[in-house]
Amino acid sequence: MAEVNLLARLPKSxxxxxxxxxxxxxxxxxxxxxxxxxxxxxxxxxxxxxxRYDGRxxxxxEDIVRHFHLKPGDRVLDxxxxxxxxxxxLMDVCPGLEAFGLDIxxxxxxxxxxxxxxxxIRGSADRLPFPDKSFSAVLCINTIHxxxxxxxxxxxxxxxxxxxxxxxIQVDSYRTPEQREIFLSWVLTAKFHDYPDGxxxxxxxxxxxxxxxWTILE
Length: 218
Ligand SMILES: C[S@@+](CC[C@H](N)C(=O)[O-])C[C@H]1O[C@@H](n2cnc3c(N)ncnc32)[C@H](O)[C@@H]1O
Hints:
34% of the residues lie in helices and 15% in strands. It is built from nine helices and seven strands, in the order βααααβαβαββαβααβ.
């Protein structure tokens, strides 16, 4: 169990915090939580503001393959895969790797990377429809904070169940009160969030033995 920044080489997104804060209403939050067209490809105020493949996950995929010593024939699952960009890049940087994705969004799956069509399934991270120990590695990036805490614990258990000791979870967090304020003025979908110590306590409660890192806005 260790803190490992596997997204270190992901380019930083542009964020207009003031504009998002002004748009944070119960209505925009409800729209974002539908994970539909508005969230992925609508205005920035309710989500990504256009979620298109641009290759930014390639260095991350390289670091994941290296970190987990993945090789052709190994199976890896990306939970909360959205349109499958990381699934595509994992297969590109490690030809022969069997990469799959799962997401709750019918919209994202219907508009997925054409190259990964057939490798993505619809489902919820707290009930993964796969047998125990069925993957060499399971990734869950920026997804588990979208649950209330009890369901987040179940989702972490699911990652551990499919790939004991070979999971990677990244979640929204903050190290200082100032970072927490910035986070609160940006967040739309997250239902549970905490300082790193609180998250680590949750991971331990779930019996998680994999690795983790934080998405922190600064
Ligand atoms: C912030 S996006 C992260 C996408 C991608 N992993 C990344 O880091 O760019 C959150 C993703 O989690 C998905 N999601 C939300 N709740 C989920 C759930 N209960 N089970 C599976 N996926 C979920 C959303 O549809 C969305 O694709």
